[in-house]
Give the backbone structure.
Amino acid sequence: MSAEATNPLSAAEATGPDAPSRRRTRPRIDLRRLGRAALLGPGTRDRLPDAIGHVAEAHRAHHPDADLAVLRRAYVLAESSHRGQFRKSGEPYITHPLAVTLILAELGAETTTLTAALLHDTVEDTEVTLDQVQAQFGDEVAYLVDGVTKLEKVDYGAAAEPETFRKMLVATGNDVRVMSIKLADRLHNMRTLGVMRPEKQVRIAKVTRDVLIPLAERLGVQALKSELEDLVFAILHPEEYENTRALIAGNTGAGDALAAIAEHVTTLLREADIPAEVLVRPRHFVSVHRVRLKRGDLRGSDFGRLLVLVGEDADCYAVLGELHTCFTPVISEFKDFIAAPKFNLYQSLHTAVAAPDGAVAEVLIRTHQMHKVAEAGVVALGNPYTPPPTGDRAETAEDGERADPTRPGWLSRLLDWQEATPDPDTFWTSLRADLAEDQEITVFRADGGTLGLPAGASCVDAAYAQYGEAAHSCLGARVNGRLATLGTVLADGDTVQLLLAQDAASGPSPEWLDHARTPAARIAITGWLRTHPEPATAPAADPRPPASHAADRRTGTRLLADLPGTTAGAVRPAGCCTPVPPDEITGFLVRGGTVTVHRTGCAAADAMRSLGRDPVTVHWGDTDECRVTLVAESFGRPRLLADLTEAIAAAGVAVVSATVEPPCEQRVRHTYTLQLPDAAGLPALMRAMRDVPGVYDVSRARQCASPDL
């Protein structure tokens, strides 16, 4: 029996109830049936066409003129080389490359990628050599197989993961198709994870959640990402998963509300003479779970969304006009990702309309080509190195590397800073932090160009993104025409002009690490500080008694520092870790005579210690009162702000300021600056905030909101 048949996860059909049939037949990506469809066994040579029949059928649906002969030859080599090998589930090993290839075929991958997918394990696990692959299938297939082969089998141990994913990114940087094959490989392994021990399932699911799913999102492969999310959800949150499945199963008629709205929209667009296809898109399990946390009790229209497909970009806006004219629009739900595409190439119009009976339907409007890219991301863009029809050769970068026109900007940035990070653990930490940033902003340079940065980036990040190591001499910035400090946090659409010193020998201060959010900036600053240590100050003949300095007035606490030698300036907490009593703390003397105080274990403090900087002895004064900034991460829902504020007030804590960022994919971030009468009550306050329904994390602010800290 196949692993899919014995694994309850593979039976998770993440579809909504009673989805109406489509008006006309169209190829649709449905990855959830592929695990079974591909498991045909190696068969005999006489049955070779049947063994890859599903792959050929899926491939021809996207590429009608594709030459299938090369796929048959690749299957012959893969089947013969893997013959006698079996998976942990007991299936012939050939079923795995078949399933991986079928996943990519349904996503619309071109023939070269499918050929490499069939052969992706041959060089690593069999006696087939890369030279043999190159001789039989050409340079492109050999290049992809070699790229996947360099991603050694993952040991899923803490020590193995960092270097494995570093290699993955390096290989991906040269050809995004390598990552496509790796993601399809992980999806099939997740489908058959039920044959492994529970503890190993959890370990693999966590890595998939932390790295593979964000990478699938960054590459725009939404169809693959959705199924990975559901599989991880079932393993890491089995109770919530079962509750969601029961909720969907118990609402068998939930699709009727959306079907009625879809029929109304179809009639409306036909009368407006706008050629369009209106479909009902059921939500997958994780999406239903998020909507339930956001809205509480669900109505029938909450179990799915409407998808309107049109032929031209202009038709998208025509459809939007008709919907907003004939229905009541929910203005807060409108987003235009056509005029401003997302960082993963995604384009679509998002809106929501209310029917006369009060049912609210979310609507996605896009062209057929936009839909293809929205589902399959970079996989749908074909071979990025195919010469144009004129016969011109593909572009080549100045360093000899192939220039991939499909490579997203975020991936290029990752590749840049990973080269400057020799330590795998540092790279791993930076990678996970970067992938956790699910929002990007675009800021405009003074020369008319643009910079893509993660949300929350500062002028320090913009400086290194624009100038690289030349940003070491940056003095300040103008943001929207006004002078600003380098710690100023940028917003989407800001115009930033970086001001550089004439003296190129000047360098960054360790304090810049408090404001640097991007790995590229942090690595550049740390590298400069490592090669330019500050000279040690000669001890004074008569050491002065310890100097007591009040901390910044915004903290509400007192900090004491022992400062032998010259007179120092103020003592203040670092913005990167916001220490409060009774945290264990350490201090460092920075330029200008200021002592910055960090929590013990803070990454910035460890970085300065690794540079040979001597810590300053610091300790808390005799006051218990303190001010701290907390960030609450939550799923959006009605009355969430009121409930959080009530929990804070019940703890006897005063709210100094509060900000709520706009919701993004049903998630909301609240930032509170709070005045505590007793610092010892901070852990209890954070627990009380986490207990508020919908809140999934409360943490100290990694960066103070005020730009001068």
The chain has a mean pLDDT of 75. The longest strand covers residues 626-635. The CA atoms of residues 295 and 637 lie 5 Å apart.
